[in-house]
Amino acid sequence: MHNKTIKPLDGIRVLSIETQVAGPYCTMMLGDAGAEVIKIESPGRGDAAREPEPILKDDKGGTISGYFMRWNRNKKSLTLNLKSEEGKIIFSELLKKSDVILENLKPRFLTSIGFSYETIKEINPRIVYVSISGFGVDKRYLGPFSKRTAYDIVIQAMGGLMG
Q: PANTHER family in the record, alphabetically (predicted)?
């Protein structure tokens, strides 16, 4: 008899469109806690985190970035062109079957391709929408930098940690 350890997020599906560190780190932790994480990647190169060194050999004879491996354990990856009609249909079906959508893309990217917060909530009213943004995305809290991309080093500098 095999006793599987029950984890706090067993049975939760997280659909993630993420890049760099903030989103991948968050979903890595959710995956560690038992969530099924489906990471959507762009056709062609995939996540930009697949490129940095060190490049390591995988168990299938290929190579993989150590940087990518650091933040992307316990995830499934799916290549999906979100700008194509077929990609949008597949993404909509995944939204219907997910508990959480997490994104840390450029501000308003999902809205620009037809997936605003309101649209996503129409597709799945019970979904939890998580947006990791340096300067805000909610209309009530938009400041002068809200359309800018923010990485960790930018937030550190603007928050006074670098000085």
A: SUCCINATE--HYDROXYMETHYLGLUTARATE COA-TRANSFERASE
